[in-house]
Specification:
Chain B: InterPro entries: SecD/SecF_arch_bac (IPR022813), SecD/SecF_bac (IPR022645), SecD/SecF_CS (IPR022646), SecD_SecF_C (IPR048634), SecF_bac (IPR005665). The complex is a heterodimer of chains A (about 450) and B (about 280). Chain A is about 50% helix and about 20% strand. Chain A is of the alpha+beta class and about 450 residues long. Chain A has 2 domains: about 220 residues, Multidrug efflux transporter AcrB transmembrane fold, CATH 1.20.1640; about 210 residues, Gyrase A, domain 2 (2-Layer Sandwich), CATH 3.30.1360. In chain A, the strands form 5 sheets. In chain A, strands 6-7-5-15 form a 4-stranded antiparallel beta sheet. A 4-stranded antiparallel beta sheet of chain A has the order 9-8-12-13. In chain A, strands 10-11-14 form a 3-stranded antiparallel beta sheet. Chain B starts with 6 loop residues before the first helix and ends with a helix. Chain B is α+β, with helices and mostly antiparallel strands and about 280 residues long. Classes of the chains: A alpha+beta (about 450), B alpha+beta (about 280). The interface between A and B is large, with 74 and 72 residues. Strand 15 of chain A pairs antiparallel with strand 4 of chain B.
Amino acid sequence: MKFSKPQKISLGITVLTLMSFYIILPAKLGNFVVPRLKYKIGKLDFSREIELKQGLDIKGGLQVTLNVDMKDIASSDRSSALDSLKEVIGRRVDLFGVSESGVKTALSGNDYRLILELPGVTDPQQALTLIGQTAKMVFALPIYTPGVTASDSATLTGFTPTDLTGADLQRAQVTFESQDRSPAVSLTFKDSGKGKFAQLTKDNIGKPIAILLDGYPLTMPTVQAEIDSGNAVITGKFTTEEAKSLSIQLNAGALPVPVSILSQKNIPATLGADSIKKSVTAGAIGLSMVIFFMIAYYGWMGLIASVGLVLYGIFTLALYKLIPVVLSLPGIAGFLLSVGMAVDSNILVFERYKEEIRAGRDWRVALELAFGRAWDSIKDANTATIITGLILFNPLDWSFLNTSGSVRGFALTLILGIFISLFTGIVVTRNLLRVFFRGKQYTNQSPTTNN
Amino acid sequence: MNWMKHLSLYFIISAIVIFPGIYSLVRFGLKPSIEFTGGSRFTLVQSISMPDVILQSFKEYTSILESSDGNGLTIKSKEISQKSVQKVLETLKPDNPDIKLTDFETIGPALGKETIKKTANALMISSFLLLTYISLAFKQLKYGICAVLAMFHDTIVLLGSFSLLGHFLGIEVDLLFVTAVLTILSFSVHDTIVVYDRIRELSHKNKNVDYVSLINQAVTETMARSLNNSLTIIFMLLAMFLMGGETTRYFSLALLIGTITGTYSSTFTAAPLLVVWEKYFGKNK
């Protein structure tokens, strides 16, 4: 048995629909646990529910933009200082144990910024106090407590801080050893630190010294010899990446940069839950109005377009989960709006179809002509929307355009909406019409000329 | 139908809608949210004292009561840190033992200025790109210019409406409003392109028909499509405006106003502008 082309495409659409439907199913429907396939593609794990990522305005939490004061930092060191700071603050954020927290750096003109998102934080004041501190680095001596029995090795139980601090360190840099070109980290001390470091190394030859950042040990090199030049090299079996990361962290201690809060927003989780409920209701009512209108005005064709519209919703949600799109309230608004716009191409085609029927063509010919001729305006009109969508989304992160998350969320749903609606409005609806539609209601109309 | 016979009527209708808006824009301007001006907004719940008393204690931050209902008070003020709010709350504790801060939002003034600049950039870049795109797609500059003029028409109606809404109802313009304005740019052009596309197609088919008749025919043929498509969008937006969450209510309203004027302008501004253009700059004159 052979399939015709529309049948093949219909089959493809059916498979796509089933897959999308499977993706959007929640983990549980009532008491019924949705069975999952044991299947993975790259990072995608189909054996559990793929979650719809919710934005901070839905989940609730804390969003802070920190201004980083780079006044005392040489301009050549600024971007590495920002990286160091991101690292330091990122670790502090991790202390809260919030999932999906994010720290982003942003550059706006000459201003250096960090944007933090901490979903689910209930005590913003405490979080801010911890995050807002300037990083503190100190050199310390490890304290070992001997094991209980002789065979137990001694365990590290604490540190004794010394008077040598991050303020005494000029900078840290990745270097390569002269013998085997292996990566290492060099430390250069300021004059204030030279003497202290010489004393420290003299007293601890053969013993380890810890470097703590915010009380967390970054590295514990063992002193080989007394160093009085103020230049030390930490060697070890580093990869270049590891050496780089260590130098960034050491610099965070050496170049402490004060931060101040530029903007802050606490969102209670209840607000988001309430908004979601309302948006879902509004969406359902809007959708039924659109479907009712389409069927009332276009009859069978409208019904088929409505099927396309429901598929549009299913595909879109599945894609949101796959990409994943972080769903914010404006994003939901963008999605609902795109539902209203999704039938646009259908309407263009159907109006065209009516015209062709009025011009006296057979419905089969009229249908194909309508799709062909409506394409020009569909293409031009949607390109215009994509242009503004891209300006709102700002994909290249241009600093002269908006970078706000809520605006981008909206733009992304709008752009995705256009592409998916073109697919459902043209490919899907066209095939459904070819397979299920038989033009009867217009054929007995007497042909009229235009105008 | 001879739509273009009533050319001046369409421009008068536009003028009637636009002038109060422009007057309001010049006279009162828009009411910017703290996203543009910088400042703080916070909500206090479980207060017992009168709102005025509480407001009084935030006096040094030039506080304004934004809204109050059974659940809480929302106060807008100059930039203030959360710590300072907590400090003031301590002084209120004796009279209001359970008073609590729920929402807190603060934005530095520098960030506000930056947002305004970025918005202006986005508007200019969008207008320029759309002008270029339409002129290229239709191979004539007049289509680009007229479509962009109709787009400005819609933008001014939207800005004017929100200026009036801001003055009389205290509705603020925020970052989402900016998003709505930019979205409306594309809506407006979207509809206009459908009409222009028909004009382009008809002019290829009927070489001997005069331009105004072509436009009339194009408008007639695209009318049902314009109305129907806008209706489906309006259904969605109306539902979102009336029943959707508080956060996106005025965003939906802005889109709703924009969609309605966008529909009107594509037929009754963008097409008539072509007629006017042809009359003054047409090749035959």
